[in-house]
Amino acid sequence: MKLSEIAHELGVSVTGGDVEITSVTYDSRKVVPGSLFCCLVGLVSDGHTFAGQAVDKGACALIVERALPVDVPQLIVHDGRKAMALAAACFYGHPEREMTMLGVTGTNGKTSTTYMVKSIAEHVGKKVGLIGTIQNMIGDEVIETGHTTPESADLFALLRRMADEGVDLVVMEVSSHALAQDRVYGIRYHIALFTNLTQDHLDYHKTFENYLSAKKQLFSQCDVAIINHDDPYAERIMDGLSCPIYTIGIHTPASYNASNIDIRTFGVRFHLRTPRGECSVSLHISGLFSIYNAMGAAAMMQQADFSLKDIVAGLEGLSGVAGRLQSVDTGEHPFSVYVDYAHTPDALENVLTTVHAFAKARVLVLFGCGGDRDRAKRPLMGEIGGRHADYVIVTSDNPRSEDPEAIVRTIEDGVKKSGTPYTVIVNRKEAIEHALSLLEPDDILVIAGKGHENYQEINGVKYHFDDKEIVEELLRQ
Predict the structure, then answer these.
(1) Angle between helices 377-388 and 345-358 (to 10 degrees)
(2) pLDDT of 98-121, one tens digit each?
(3) What is the reported pTM?
(4) What phi and psi, each to the nearest 5 degrees, are found at residue 274?
(5) Rounded Cα distance, 355 and 377, in Å
(6) Which end of the chain has less neighbouring CB within 10 Å, N or C?
(7) Does residue 431 sit within a domain?
(8) pLDDT over threshold 70, residue 206
């Protein structure tokens, strides 16, 4: 593709002549001869400083926010991130226009909802592209993922691959970081869903208002909006939207409503009322939050013209999602262990409330908080853990560059407020071993925070660590 074609898409002129482009990238390590290198201004580094290195490796043109003294053509733009998204979309031939695009945003529930959508679509033989926290998928093929939502250059490359491999429908988690950083800029979603909004990522967004604004951005890029009307911020999200809006709810009037709810150990049953009929649904995933996720998935798919019969069959055909209230095989031991990705105050409260609904004896919870992330939520999670569990084990999560001892101390401050007995064991494996040693018949242990993750990040190094594997190993011993 000629640079001039990309310049036309961006509405700018080429400075320095036209050239043939072979790839679009923002990472100087991925530059190949013929690359269009995008100089992004980030929180830590400025891509303009790597322009010379990129040119030395073969970059034949640059997207810049200021002219640089290098001897290659440049596209001078006002916003490098928006420009990179448009350039990538153009270079890859706008693959997003060839598939049905569904986006899910919110603090919690994004992953489970996308897997529910995938199950529904596959039930009727559609090929699905999934982009999210656990992994990216093209049909049954798993593709490694770094961010919940990839950078735009990587995202459009992935979408091109999906379109070329016959994907009919793409369902993707759209994170607040992705929206704030214009990673999905230029994509028009057929349907977008808002799950909920609770405190998270304030290390990046700084204020809750910024966090809310980032989430709301998705709904300026969609044809139909689905909103969780029970969420306190629903009205703020809906205010000013120009697209058709459908709502889901249990406690408030909504377009999609769940009633006659029966929460069980290994699933839930409920009656679903929709604008196009009513039905009963039996999920194999427990918890009230699972009903909200299922309603969101059902609403999206009904608005995508899937029948209610197929929606129910797809929901009921999903056995579970990795790391989401996932039961661990405890063999003949008379207690239960669950791993869950809950790493926000709201998510931790949801999972513990769910478990208490079917617990026959004590509920124990083990968790930590990630380093280099929102510090304000640590004591909140400590207090919630103490308020909703009978015993708390505070441990390390992904400390990253922070001192894990300092992290657990701030969590401990919150646990103390609850008055619930607790212990602090920083080493996560030792903490799990101790927690298992405390379990009595019919007790339930919830290991929260990491869920599907199979690593622990300490001082910039990722070490293999899987909560589920550790439990199974210790129980075998």
Answers:
(1) 10
(2) 999 999 999 889 999 999 999 999
(3) 0.88
(4) -125, 170
(5) 22
(6) C
(7) yes
(8) no
